[in-house]
Amino acid sequence: MTTVVVNSGACGFSVTIKAEKGKEKKIALFLDTPCEMVQKMLADISTVDQRVTLTGFRDNPVYLSAAKHLKHVACPVPSAILKAIETEAGMNVPKDVRIEFIREK
After folding, report:
1. Which of 9, 19, 72, 102 lies in disulfide reach of 88, CB 3.0 to 4.6 Å?
2. pLDDT at residue number 27
3. What's the CA gap between 1 and 85, in Å, rounded?
4. Would you give the DSSP letter of residue 21?
5. pLDDT (tens digit, 9 = 90+) per residue, 21-39?
6. Which of 40, 51, 39 is nearest to 82 (CA)?
7. From CA 105, how far away is CA 102, in angstroms rounded?
8. For the chain, counts of helices (H) and of strands (E)
9. What CATH class does 2-88 carry?
10. Nearest Cα residue to 81 out of 19, 20, 25, 39
């Protein structure tokens, strides 16, 4: 099982994503968060094919669910979900991602 924790930023919500490889290239997803919008995504993507990580933005089930449920387009959770899927599928290595703001004086 692959576990990813996302601290989403200004909204103050964190999300724990768990991805677990099953049979026939299927990945089960678990999203633990107080964010109701992210919780609603799970109805659409509780189980996905691991090849979802190779699907473009316009047709990607994770991004389609995000477009349907998330109000904040810059939310990092959809990307983190895909990172968890590709790592669990063995298609990438677990490597931290970071967005850093540099404030000019």
Report:
1. 19
2. 97
3. 10
4. E
5. 999 999 999 999 999 999 9
6. 51
7. 10
8. 3, 4
9. alpha beta
10. 19
- Write the DSSP symbol of residue 86: H
Sign of CA dihedral 78, 83, 86, 88: negative
Distances (CA, A) of 52 to 26, 61, 64, 103: 10, 7, 12, 36
Contact between 65 and 44 under an 8 Å Cβ cutoff? The reply is: yes
DSSP state of 1: -
Please count the other Cβ atoms lying within 10 Å of the Cβ belonging to residue 21.
15
Three state DSSP letters for 47-85? EEEHHHHHCCHHHCHHHHHHHHHCCCCCCCHHHHHHHHH
The answer, as to whether pTM is greater than 0.70, is yes
